[in-house]
Structure prediction request, 201 residues.
Amino acid sequence: MIKLYTFPPSTNSRKVRIALIEKGLEFERVNVDLTKREQKNPEYLKLHPFGQIPTLDDEGFVIYDSTIINEYLEDEYPYPPLMPKDSEGRARARLMEDFRDNHFNAYFVHIIQEIRKPEGERDSQRMDNAKAEIAKAFDRIERELDGKEYLAGAFSLGDIAFMPNIDLLDRFGIAVDPKYKNTIAWIERLKARPSFAASAT
Ligand SMILES: N[C@@H](CCC(=O)N[C@@H](CS)C(=O)NCC(=O)O)C(=O)O
Prediction:
């Protein structure tokens, strides 16, 4: 059976949990407790040289990095498809994943890092800047969604990448401006997918 090294609050692990659930694949969750720094245990470092989660073990084939894992799942278990068939659509889905991984999520990481500090030591300017950058990112998402239900047309890995962060918006007190109508409808669509709730842990 597929094994996923994961931890419930990890956004990158949840990306993979969602893809597995969407594909109807059974998997065993192996908890790597980040609060106990279990990701840096020598045994775990044999699986993931950078000591991060998620890592996937598919019957002895071990890979890491949420984006690469989800691409592997798409190649190995193509049904139901989570990528468009045409190369333009595939490129669009990958661009959106890249935008989420390297821009959007990066600001969530800033907030998480500050929240973990004792209250008096938090850098409120860094947190405010991160929230402002996240709010700005909706401008692009709104444009990408013009005339479409999902970022690359049909539901894809590009949308899945954003789902764990969407769950954090309320928790971090980040409101989506009502002018972003496409984005608000897209968020509701994503939240309604059974994989959204099923991937929470
Ligand atoms: N590019 C990697 C990033 C993985 C990553 O940042 N994982 C976080 C959890 S969401 C982690 O393991 N943090 C603990 C650490 O870096 O020590 C991916 O997408 O899998």
